Amino acid sequence: MRRLWFDIAIFLSGALLVLAGILFGQFTTLFPKVLGSFAKRFDIIRNVVFVYGALLTALGIYGFAQWKTDGATITEFLNKLALNSPKKISQQIRIFVEFNHNIPVHAWLWFLPLLMIGTTLFAYFLSQPMRGDEAFTFLNYVNKNIWNVFEYSAPNNHVLFTILVKISTLFWGSEPVIIRLPAFMAGILNLFLVFYWVQINKPTLGTGVISFSGMAATPYFALYATNARGYTLIITLTLLLAIFWQRYIMSPSQPRLFFLAFLSALILLTMPSGAIGVAGLFMWAMSGLLLRPYPFRQILKNVVLPYALWSAFLTAIFYTPVIIVSSGVAAITENKFVQGASLQVFLPGFLPNLQKAFVEITRDIPTTILVFCGFLFLAGLYSSWKNKDWAFALIFPALMIGAFGVLLIGTVLPYARTWIYLIPFALILMDYGLTSIVKNRPGFIRSVSHTAIVLSGAFLALSLMANNTIAKYPDTSAFPEAKMVVEYLKPIFKEGDSIHVTNTANVPIEYYLWYYGMPERDFSTMLETGTRFYVVKKSHYSIEDMTDKPVRLLLDFENMALYERIKE
């Protein structure tokens, strides 16, 4: 007899949890005074119980349906997963090691110089002054007790990334370099992942010099590889998801599908907006399965349903501590910084939003390089469609359609940085275009063109370092003069003195006040029995916006002016 016992247990557990959620809701309604101040927390627990119940019930029903149609039940799947996981993991490690041994020397000769260029560029800007958003993340979610890691009081908390920062700072301290270490390591790992993907698809992607150069020297990528936010981690997880979807299409299996759901849940834990990349890659994978071809009914039954159920279940598990600590899901679903618009605003605004993101993401890339890359991107699209190489022809359209679908649900026009995960996929298409152009050319021509691309990447990286370009970017509430202000004030600041600082400059100031051990960090509660100091971010405010009292200028440097109020 086929095994179904665990499926039945899942279904019964889910049904009981759903019933408990309903009963808890009735209890909350009938006896609000009994619960008192605990009512809100009780309501959160009720919602969590109900969601788990609904998901477990759905999994149980799915397992029973599989049993009825001779598919693998949840019991059989988990049993096989448990029994075969050690063997599968060792097998995958062996395949990975053997694959790396078979990578030709000339592939490493193109990759390693660009890896050194990227590592040098990222390391150079790793110690730049702290920016507002990353300082906010550190002060509010990292530099407190362990539960604050899961507090989602603002979208600054990219939970999975914050957990990595917490681990990093517990071991090595709270220097800006250490706080940014997870973003930096993810940035380096992204270079390796692109290299790995190029080697998997070597006949169509050639040497991969465009991908390596772009990942190593794109200014926007360097900005977020040296900024303690979760964007480079999103790229890492999205690239892993793409690689494993490609492997799944070639050889479908339920354990591999479970791992894909696990990666998708990790992306969503990093930041909810990661759903746009997850949706795009899911569409790409489904189109690949349909083109192989697999029957639509089989795809729906064996891929779509289990992937959706496992993704939802794992995401619920990962977000449970976040929901409990944050007092509900509203903090996650109601982003006050990115509000949904009406359809009349969203639809005509979508393309301008993309255009704005393109301008921001490609800034400080020389026009010549940008035009050349645009030409290669179009050549890659054209060649992949002409060759009916659907794995590459459909990936970018699928990513855009998936993103549009997710954003349409909330009618949200996102920040430019939300689109950063598209960078490696655009570069991969450029490599496809380059390969299609030079594949029939003499070896000397190919070597010269590839060398020119590597040198261009090196030149761009050196230019960014020489001009200190990344540190000057205003993104994510940058105020590089904050450190200078606090260093100036430290020897003269006394108990009773107060600091008045404008928004977008306040959080970097607050971080350096903490960093240098200043006596007071909470601006709102500072006593004003002593001297008042005013910090002005000149690009946003003037001293007249802050006070009409007489002041004396103490320090004036670039975007910062520091004033002291004159006592009357």
Describe the fold and architecture.
The protein has three domains: 5-79; 106-472, no CATH class; 482-565, no CATH class. A four-stranded mixed beta sheet has the order 1-2-4-3, with no helix packed on it. The chain is mainly α and 568 residues long. The mean pLDDT is 86. The termini are far apart. Helix 7 crosses helix 14 and helix 13 (231-250) packs antiparallel against helix 14. It has 26 helices and four strands. The longest helix has 30 residues, at 39-68. A hairpin with a 2-residue loop joins strand 3 (551-557) and strand 4. It is globular, with a radius of gyration of 27 Å.
What is the element layout, followed by pairings?
Elements: H1 5-30, H2 32-35, H3 39-68, H4 74-101, H5 105-124, H6 132-142, H7 159-172, H8 176-179, H9 181-200, H10 202-205, H11 209-217, H12 219-225, H13 231-250, H14 254-270, H15 275-291, H16 296-325, H17 330-333, H18 343-361, H19 367-386, H20 390-393, H21 395-410, H22 423-438, H23 443-466, H24 469-472, H25 482-489, E1 498-501, H26 506-515, E2 532-537, E3 551-557, E4 560-565
